[in-house]
Amino acid sequence: MSVIVKNLAKHYGEQKAVNQISFEAKPGRILGFLGPNGAGKSTTMKMLTGYLAPTSGEAEICNLTIQTAPLAVKKLIGYLPENTPLYLEMYVREFLGFVAETYGLKNIAQRIEEVIKLVGLTQEQHKKIGMLSKGYKQRVGLAQAIIHDPQVLILDEPTSGLDPNQLADIRSLIKSLGKDKTVIISTHIMQEVEALCDDVIIINKGTLVANTSIADLRKEHQQASLEEIFKALTR
Ligand code: ADP
């Protein structure tokens, strides 16, 4: 159930947006993926989820390689992309049913009920997605990412746009999902990393500058705050 990334690279013309990065994400642990804007986080996540072909290197999801088994890999992964693209004209339940069908799920009605409860969408479940606030749209994005109960969750800034209460709810949901799944989340928020993550990778200008556990990162940097460590590594 691990994610193993080996020398993964994506070039846009001359620019090495992702430059031969290698890391591993393990089941039952939450991996924080940090880096300044433009560092290559979204590009990496898009490659892991099969939405973007790498220039070179490989990634293995639960023993399947993304290049040779893209469809099988998509079934194993739940992906919340950056800025959650959603069908705004669809109703929440209609959209979740549509996603469930694309995965060929059985007991779709029951699963929709479950995920609506899990992500806290009960109050808004009968609305059109376009009518929802940013935080609730984000919850719909999370619901579609987990509806097929994937072993691996890849979440690109999952708490962006949430108010403090929503933030606490969604963090605790991610924490509980992380107990038995492999979770990779990108975020800019250091408190989030402290609250959620066991391990961390930091990317700067396409290159990995840290790949360790939070505890070891702290030890290596004489217990400095994550904020200070991040600044020092991504200057
Ligand atoms: P992050 O998610 O860390 O903010 P991205 O992965 O979105 O960073 O972007 C990494 C770099 O690749 C940036 O310099 C960005 O401008 C560039 N980039 C991303 N997508 C494209 C694209 N489709 N064409 C050209 N350059 C791109």
Short description:
The chain has helices at 41-48, 70-76, 92-102, 108-119, 134-146, 164-177, 190-196, 214-220, 226-233; strands at 3-12, 15-25, 30-34, 56-61, 64-65, 77-80, 152-156, 182-186, 199-204, 207-213. It is α/β, with parallel strands linked by helices.
Q: How would you characterize the overall build of this protein?
A:
- There is one protein chain.
- The protein has a domain at 3-83 and 151-233: Rossmann fold (3-Layer(aba) Sandwich), CATH 3.40.50.
- It is built from 9 helices and 10 strands.
- The chain has helices at residues 41-48, 70-76, 92-102, 108-119, 134-146, 164-177, 190-196, 214-220, 226-233; strands at 3-12, 15-25, 30-34, 56-61, 64-65, 77-80, 152-156, 182-186, 199-204, 207-213.
- The strands form 2 sheets. Strands 6-7-8-3-9-10 form a 6-stranded mixed β-sheet, sandwiched between helices. It has a 4-stranded antiparallel β-sheet with strand order 2-1-4-5, with helices on one face.
- The model has no long low-confidence stretch (mean pLDDT 92).
- The site of adenosine-5'-diphosphate (ADP) has 10 residues, from helix 1.
- Adenosine-5'-diphosphate (ADP) binds next to helix 1.
SS-based class: alpha/beta
**Oligomerization:** single chain
Q: What is the element string, with H for helices and E for strands?
A: EEEHEEHEHHHEHEHEEHH
State the end-to-end CA separation: 34 Å
Low-confidence stretches: none
Q: What is the approximate shape?
A: globular
